[in-house]
Amino acid sequence: MTTVAVAEPFPGEREVTDQVVREHKLNATEYRAIIALLERAPTLTELGIFSALWSEHCSYKHTKPVLRRFPVDGPQVVQGPGENAGVLRLPEGWAVAFKIESHNHPSAVEPYQGAATGVGGILRDVFTMGARPVAVLNSLRLGPLDDPRNRYLFAGIVKGVGDYGNCVGIPTLAGEVCFAPCYTGNPLVNAMAVGLLREADLATARAHGVGNILLAVGAKTGRDGIHGASFASEDLTAESEKRRPQVQVGDPFTEKLLLEASLALITGGYIIAIQDMGAAGLTSSSAEMAARGGVGVEVDTSKVPTREPGMTPYEIMLSESQERMLVVAAPHRLDAIRAVCRQWDLDATPIGHVTDDGIFRVVHDGRVVAAIPGKELVDGCPMYSPPAVESDAAKNRRAFAPMVSGPGCSVTLERLLDAPTIASKRWVFEQYDGTVRGGSVMPPGGDAGVLRVADTGFGIAMTVDCNARHVLLDPYEGGKGAVAEAARNIACTGAQPLGITDCLNFGNPEKPEIYFQFVEACRGIGEACRTFGTPVTGGNVSLYNQNPVGAIDPTPTIGMVGLLADVTKAVPSHFRMPGDAILLLGETRGHLGGSAYWAEVLDTVGGAPPPVNLTAEHGLQRLLVAAADRRLLRSAHDLSDGGLAVALAECCIGGPWATVQFGADVDLGRHADAASDEGWLFGEDGARALVSCDPAHVAELQRLAHDHGLPCHYLGLTGGSDLIVRRDARSWRWSVARLRAIYVDAIPRRMATVTARNGAP
Amino acid sequence: MMVHVHVRIVPRSGLLDPQGQAIEHALSALGFSGIGDVRVGKAIELRLDAASPAAAAATARAMCDRLLANPVTEDFRIEVEPE
Amino acid sequence: MMVHVHVRIVPRSGLLDPQGQAIEHALSALGFSGIGDVRVGKAIELRLDAASPAAAAATARAMCDRLLANPVTEDFRIEVEPE
Amino acid sequence: MTCVAVIRFPGSNCEAETLAAVVRAGGDALLVDYRDTHLHHADAVILPGGFAYGDYLRSGAIARFAPVMQAVKALADAGGAVVGICNGFQVLCEARLLPGALQRNAQQRFVSRPVDVRIERNDTVCTADYDVGEVIRIPVAHGEGRYVADPATLTALEAEHRVLLRYVPVAGSDLPHNPNGSLHDIAGICNAAGTVVGFMPHPERLADRVLGSDAGQRFFSSLVRSARVEVAA
Ligand SMILES: Nc1ncnc2c1ncn2[C@@H]1O[C@H](COP(=O)(O)OP(=O)(O)O)[C@@H](O)[C@H]1O
Ligand SMILES: [Mg+2]
């Protein structure tokens, strides 16, 4: 351990009492560890710093051992977990940086700003790697739309995501939106950013070089979000009201300037390291950069440009004001750096330097207000592995089956297409610029977003996915399934899955049944990633998504990117021509446990979700990529929520802007023996995709499927204006025009009146 | 009686106001000097049928609380003017 | 002297104001009645160092003419309040 | 070779694809900073899409005061080709180089989707390679694209055939053909000579076969060709 250092309280600062320690969400063990480390009691500033860095968000104190089991290596990995974003190798010297992050709690309080600043933060994580952001994705979970507060949140969140990315000029290329009662009061906003860089330009966030300077670049520091992580309660006095955490407000215009300036600084070779002042602001950025580089730092908070007068070192260290960067550079570069920043109308202000004593030191007007051994500050938080035990309720749920019978297949399909989770998300992504930058090969509306890489011939595909109901019912299978669904979506476009980033949204980990969900879901994710050769390159953990009514369904959102070697071979999701052959790849068992049919139509969340066959999933991915490469496919769409019937309907309905629809006439007869009609139509067995092709290619496709060890069933032909499904003597028929109307109108119809905020949060 | 209600909704003090900043910046670039603390919000005007000016103000407050203003980020002020 | 300037910028009468309509609609959906002519505009507040309230008003008018309001679509009103 | 200046304001974000479209059309493209006071001998100017200054007050309101706008005005006054796309259109209206204004979309939401627009004239600097009456599908992406003008201006625009692009319905679409409530379904207008042009849709975003369509490319081939003619004359 480094030598113990002294610090004194800042004048007027509150005394550190037991009560104050509790308010900072540090427990007795942690506080003892702090005293042992410092060999004295901490100052308030130090307590605030510990509280931030030892929060779950920064320390991963409940989750690190579990996350360590993820596969993180592979020939394509340029940068694995630990930096601001993961980076994977692409052809021709290119690389892709990507990362996902949650902004759940801020969005619950202030949906518009919460979502907007979520996008802003994740963009910064990507461009600090030296990558130019080229796409945003978003995964949103809300309570049902019949509740006015949920409508208000949904409208605000979507507008926030859109306004921010639109203004910065980054297309939003894909996403998902799910609705379930558990998200009422606990909305989830997960934002992912994807960036491109020349591999040689990779930047890191590692401070080094004693005497090098720390610079604050970008917006001024205000009282935004202070105590956001730690200060739960405080007697409400006039004085404390003034210190009340302020909502963080996003400024996408400044972000755009910061983006350009940062990339200019990085690619111009002006700087040594750069990191976003994100959660826990200056504290986490400076401490983490120092710890990664194995050095100490000294920050002079009196030099930090502030928006308001009289800010204390505590406030400055913990502010979460947006659009700020911390840069490490050699002193002789200062003038050049300032010139680059001025070009973008930004200030770069020296606020500290790198030291050789390993101490994380904060001074204000010459007074040392914090001095903490830096490595222990970042790595020394006590770790916890709470008991992980599945609850009886969870076991019972899995054994459960609905008591009622359904309304019949005809009505069921219509009800499913009208369910907001399944229905068209056009209302959402119509508010997101999907085409800016002129590289969008497949904007939202298909299985995955596809983007051309600069002016090369190759592209990247991207998606976010998670079936939280499946994870709830069986965390291990559900975890595998989330990765499998993401990979299917990528492969349906013809792209090869490359790697993932994850956003692990769970309830309170101190509850054994929640921790069980966490451990098991992660085990499933890791195993799927190992089988598919898609390493985990980073991610984010969001725990305590829980209110007095209960916890959210465990929601480990998977963000995945893939490589499309030739963008001219991108495969769309919907039927394209009448007279094309329709084939079903993969095996159907008619597994209804955990299905959308049970949940949305029979109001039953129960049963065991379909077991995930990773070998079959992997085979399907390779088959889809091979078939696309040979240009055998006219369309490909993965089967997920709502099973075969929903996939068929979606392929007929066409894309969000389609002006033509196609009917289809399919016969399940020869392949469907065991399962019920409902099982065949609405079961959610994995490892399946619905494809269409020129009838002349059917034989070749079937051969290829055989080579990949997958069944390939010929179902029928596209054409006409109705979707007709036959099985033995029975048949069902739907007008595609009517199905489309249901599907595209489900969300706008419910969002026609957004009025009440329904009480302040 | 018919009254005119003017509602002014501005960002809470302490909150970042990027619009205000941008305008302040632009005004000084145009040569206006001695300007500070620019805040930008919404101005809402409406006509209201109310028993009295006081009743109108109460109704307007309720409108702000329930819909017009966002209590997390905005403060509001109401003026009532009989027609 | 320092004065507070309040600028209210509203859509020109005669021009359609969809935002005002949307709010009118939402208010009546919330049960507010007797409402009409809802117009939504911008409220801009700033502090200004000026020789007199009249001078401040003149400066504010110039700001509106040059930048703050678009004469094609907007009208403005200015109030000055000494600090 | 025809040289087209693409102006970059601090918050422009469509300049790269706009430059690429010009180059693909055989033109010479030049990025010009908003602080520049001259156009480096460019024959034509494009004001690209984006959020010039964050557009926090009104789109284009602050941008019109940028130093480079003097040179843009001078070029426009001299009969040179000036094209505003989306935010660029907003800037041209704010700068009074084109009449009217672009207001918040009627539905109060940003709109990003393909629209079908009819080419109303092909004797302007950027539509010569289209046929009159041709309907093309290109994207819009804007929050403030509702074109408004007073009745006299609208009447004059129509009488003088200065509506360049109009949103039109196409069979089979289940979306309103007019994405923002623009008066007279106006998507773009021009000055009397057809040399100063502004429109909301983004042809530069759909100007390459790889993206499934190059419906927008002819705006740029027209511009490169017509500006060259001008120079020769
Ligand atoms: N929040 C969102 N933002 C952008 N695109 C979205 C969003 N939600 C859904 N989409 C798009 O809508 C399409 C359908 O999404 P989804 O129903 O989740 O399909 P799938 O089950 O195939 O993943 C996809 O193209 C997806 O990217
Ligand atoms: Mg999905």
Question: What do these coordinates show?
Answer:
- The complex is a heterotetramer, with one copy of chain A (761 residues), two copies of chain B (83 residues) and one copy of chain D (233 residues).
- Chain A is of the alpha+beta class.
- Chain A contains 26 helices and 28 strands.
- A seven-stranded mixed beta sheet of chain A has the order 8-10-7-11-9-12-13. In chain A, strands 23-25-22-26-24-27-28 form a seven-stranded mixed beta sheet. A six-stranded mixed beta sheet of chain A has the order 1-2-3-6-4-5.
- A three-stranded antiparallel beta sheet of chain B has the order 2-1-3.
- The longest helix of chain B has 16 residues, at 53-68.
- Chain D is of the alpha/beta class and 233 residues long.
- Chain D has one domain: Class I glutamine amidotransferase (GATase) domain (Rossmann fold, 3-Layer(aba) Sandwich), CATH 3.40.50.
- In chain D, helix 1 links the parallel strand 1 and strand 2.
- Chain D starts with a strand and ends with a helix.
- The model of chain D has no long low-confidence stretch (mean pLDDT 95).
- Classes of the chains: A alpha+beta (761), B alpha+beta (83), D alpha/beta (233).
- The interface between A and D is large, with 40 and 40 residues.
- Strand 2 (35-49) of chain B pairs antiparallel with strand 2 of chain C.
- The structure holds adenosine-5'-diphosphate and magnesium ion.
Task: Throw out a few tags for this protein.
B: 83 residues; Mth169, Chain: A; 3-stranded antiparallel beta sheet; 2 helices; 34% helix; D: 233 residues; alpha/beta; Rossmann fold; 9-stranded mixed beta sheet; 11 strands; binds adenosine-5'-diphosphate; binds magnesium ion
Short characterization:
The complex is a heterotetramer, with 1 copy of chain A (761 residues), 2 copies of chain B (83 residues) and 1 copy of chain D (233 residues). Chain B is of the alpha+beta class and 83 residues long.
Beta content of chain B:
35-45%
Oligomerization status of the protein chains: heterotetramer
Unreliable residue stretches of chain A: 229-243
Backbone structural class of chain B = alpha+beta
Structural class of chain A: alpha+beta
Rounded to an integer in angstroms, the radius of gyration calculated over CA atoms of chain B is: 16 Å
Share of helical residues of chain A = 25-40%
Total helical segments of chain A: 26
Please outline the major beta sheet of chain A.
7 strands, mixed
**What is the rounded distance between the termini of chain A?**
45 Å
By CATH, the architecture of chain B is named 2-Layer Sandwich
CA radius of gyration of chain A is 26 Å
CATH class of chain B: Alpha Beta
In CATH, the topology of chain B is named Mth169, Chain: A
Bound molecules: adenosine-5'-diphosphate, magnesium ion
Beta-strand content of chain A: 15-25%
Strands of the largest sheet of chain B, in order across it?
2-1-3
How many beta-strand runs of chain A? 28
